[in-house]
Amino acid sequence: MGVARLRFYEELNDFLAPARRKREFDYAFARAATVKNAIEAVGDPHTEVELILVDGRSVDFSYRLRDGDRVSVYPMFEAFDVAPLVRVRERPLRDTRFVADAHLGGLARLLRMAGFDTLHDNAYADDAIRRLAAAESRVILTRDRALLKCRDVTHGCYVRALEPPAQLAEVVGRLQLAASMAPFTRCLRCNLPLADVDKDEVRHRLPETVAQPRARFRTCAGCERVYWEGSHWRRMRELLERVARPT
């Protein structure tokens, strides 16, 4: 047995018991316990962690705790670059793609609207989500902490907000995605890339209310749905602009 001193920073405190938030606390551990064991035992999913310092030295999740260690645990950073210090993951995900759990259908739709490759199906079980994330290098989006604590999950994001627009703002902000947004380039239903199409080619599939000239039409090769710049498009454009705007 040993005792380490743990301290969690910023939003990582949300997962802790109230008495442990925003302060150092003692954590008793068994022989051969890793720092990952400790982090998850007190409530934090390892996917929320970006940097771990033990007595000021950066370590990865496999570090075995020693009696008297002082452990500082940090979330994903937005204000400054910690890449030279990070030791918790083998590699970052350069191409940001997502798989959302069954409870985040609204968020998945908005992420597709923002141009991000996002898989979602109400029938996805947790093991299917984990397989997709591993096979296709996708970030798991969920409100299920237990899913993010699974050993084979390397990239995940616990979504705190409850409403889809707020969830979108949270994910874009935390993962610094504003510059990567490509609005209205993916099908909201199929997640496939959209292609420009001439109006005459899809006229027979348009409602009568879309008779007036439109600047642009796009279609999905999967479901053949047609998109155009109507009033709904303008409302969604305003939402995406608010999300991308620095605060």
Description:
- With 247 residues, the chain is α/β, with parallel strands linked by helices.
- Among the domains are: 2-75, Ubiquitin-like (UB roll) (Roll); 98-180.
- It has helices at 35-41, 105-113, 126-136, 145-148, 164-174, 199-202, 231-244, and strands at 2-8, 25-29, 49-54, 57-58, 70-75, 98-100, 118-120, 139-142, 156-158, 194-196, 217-220, 226-228.
- The chain has a five-stranded mixed beta sheet with strand order 2-1-5-3-4, covered by helices on one side. A four-stranded parallel beta sheet has the order 7-6-8-9, with helices on both faces.
- It is elongated, with a radius of gyration of 22 Å.
Integer average pLDDT: 88
Estimate the global geometry from the Cα principal axes. Answer: elongated
Largest sheet: 5 strands, mixed
Number of strands: 12
Could you outline the blueprint of secondary structure elements for this entry?
Layout: E1 2-8, E2 25-29, H1 35-41, E3 49-54, E4 57-58, E5 70-75, E6 98-100, H2 105-113, E7 118-120, H3 126-136, E8 139-142, H4 145-148, E9 156-158, H5 164-174, E10 194-196, H6 199-202, E11 217-220, E12 226-228, H7 231-244
Parallel strand pairs: 1-5, 6-7, 6-8, 8-9
Antiparallel strand pairs: 1-2, 3-4, 3-5, 10-11, 11-12
Helix pairs in contact: 2-5, 5-7
Summary keywords:
7 helices, 5-stranded mixed beta sheet, alpha/beta, Ubiquitin-like (UB roll), 24% helix, 247 residues, 4-stranded parallel beta sheet
